[in-house]
Design a protein that fits this description.
Layout lengths: L12 E10 L2 E11 L4 E5 L6 H8 L4 E9 L2 E2 L5 H7 L1 E4 L11 H8 L5 H14 L16 H13 L5 E5 L7 H12 L8 E5 L3 H7 L2 E6 L2 E7 H6 L1 H8 L1 H9 L5
Parallel strand pairs: 3-8, 3-9, 6-7, 7-8
Antiparallel strand pairs: 1-2, 1-4, 4-5, 9-10
Helix pairs in contact: 3-5, 5-6, 9-10
Length: about 260
């Protein structure tokens, strides 16, 4: 009986030599990265590094000039976002991540719009096992939630489709450091234990790297460092060069916490 090595298994998500941008302007210049199954991968870098454009190109929003995007070995380059959701990529945007005028339970139901009522209910029950805190908030309107509760609702809504890969764009935007830690450590990191693959783009780089297995650091549209996240955090020169002097000092002063 032949065995299959890890090298023969396609990563959950792979980007190969991606060049992307807007019109004729190149923003992402030859980026390659992988998100293995059940791992959290962080993409970090300064403002203007091309992180957001990378996500938009991967999700069929920005123009892909060359290169490929693969989902479990399947070419999904330029596939529209709605179809990507059906194929297994769940996307939680930085803004407009929930329906403010709807209750939490209604947001979850919207996430399972593809299914009949019985299947939606089964999926809601499974999602509430992942985020039990939401049980007490099901009848609250999303606009009344705290920042952390709102992000939890957004992730839970995407989980209704049981995606293979979750793409999170700046999940701690506008959150306090304390709430940011809660979101990353208590909501994002546990997803890998469920077998989900997570691509995390985060401005709070040190905090993101604390929960990530692997890190890609981008500068001016290119990946300058690809390494285990713990290695990036432990190297003060790497922290200062790619995450900024303030982040490096914060990491040292707080025991690598942010």
């Amino acid at each position: 009986m032949s065995s299959v090595s890890n090298a023969d298994i396609a990563p959950a998500l792979a980007i190969r030599d991606l060049v992307a941008g807007y019109g004729d302007i190149t923003v992402v210049d030859g980026v390659s990265l992988e998100v293995p199954t059940g791992k959290v991968v962080a993409v970090a870098g300064p403002n203007g590094a091309g992180k957001s454009t990378l996500l938009k190109a991967m999700l069929g929003i920005a123009r892909v000039m060359s290169g490929k995007v693969f989902l479990e070995g399947r070419d999904v380059t330029d596939v529209p976002l709605e179809k990507l959701a059906r194929l297994g990529i769940g996307y939680v945007p930085q803004l407009d991540d929930v329906f403010d005028s709807l209750k939490v339970i209604e947001n979850l139901e919207m996430g399972g719009y593809l299914f009949n009522r019985a299947e939606r209910q089964r999926r809601i029950e499974r999602v509430l096992e992942v985020f039990p805190h939401l049980k007490a908030n099901l009848n609250r309107y999303a606009e009344t939630l705290s920042g952390g509760e709102r992000k939890m609702t957004a992730i839970a809504r995407v989980l209704m489709l049981d995606p293979k890969v979750l793409v999170l764009d700046e999940p701690t935007a506008n959150l306090t450091p304390e709430l940011s830690r809660v979101v990353l450590h208590e909501q994002v990191r546990p997803l890998s234990a469920l077998g989900k693959s997570v691509l995390l783009v985060e401005q709070k780089a040190v905090a993101a790297l604390e929960v990530a297995d692997w890190a890609y650091l981008m500068v001016r549209g290119r990946v300058e460092v690809s390494a285990p996240a713990a290695q990036v955090l432990q190297d003060p020169n790497m922290r200062e060069i790619f995450l900024g002097r303030a982040a490096a000092q914060a990491a040292v002063g707080r025991g690598l916490s942010q």
